[in-house]
């Protein structure tokens, strides 16, 4: 698993999704996002993850067009924001995202957060978009097990992906097991803990052993654990470094060491308690 940057996992509907993607959260619209997406595509990334609320879909679209990479080689994800949830408003939000990205279809469309009383209706709209082939796969983001159980109770299409905060200090074991059992691919946002805790002695020691950076060790841990991962950076050297994780493999012992670092520590909001 994970021998090359274009290696993919197969989602529950047969669609191939790269193990490694490029995230653009907090990357500014305009030249910053255009340049960083172009750097990523040049480095070999083929999966780009954005969202309506990031405000940079137009720049992502422009970078894709100017990159010269064929559309069918790319895997583009975007997300419906909380204020747009609901049936009709989700359909409208999707068209806005698609138009900003300048794409005929989206590869993966996600519900950004489980807004109480809204996400099931939103999911019906997602299912409609999927049936109309406007999107190749649909999924959720920031859903706990109980949110997924609620959705699975009466959905027609099982989510293909659940994208959640996941890293060595928040390894989400219960959720990962639940998703494995249900055929839902888990995907990590903030896989690198927003650059915090890179001085953790265990991570530093493992990195030294492989002659890799702590970031590369964490991203490799993701892939070997069957987790799709989307590190974000605006620095070309870092974008390249994050992609350079396909020429080594962690031992089971080192994976277990990283697994043991879990403290259930979040750097982002808790899906059971967010106010946006």
TrEMBL record:
Keywords: NADP, Oxidoreductase
NADP-dependent oxidoreductase domain span: 20-263
Pfam families found in the cross-reference section: Aldo_ket_red
SUPFAM superfamilies: NAD(P)-linked oxidoreductase
Signal peptide: none
Residues given in the record as substrate binding sites: 112
Site annotation Lowers pKa of active site Tyr: residues: 79
Gene Ontology MF, one: oxidoreductase activity, acting on the CH-OH group of donors, NAD or NADP as acceptor
Catalytic residues as annotated in Swiss-Prot or TrEMBL: 54
UniProt KW Cytoplasm keyword: no
InterPro entries from the UniProt entry: AKR, AKR5G, Aldo/ket_reductase_CS, NAD(P)_OxRdtase_dom_sf, NADP_OxRdtase_dom
Family in the record: Belongs to the aldo/keto reductase family.
Protein name: Aldo/keto reductase
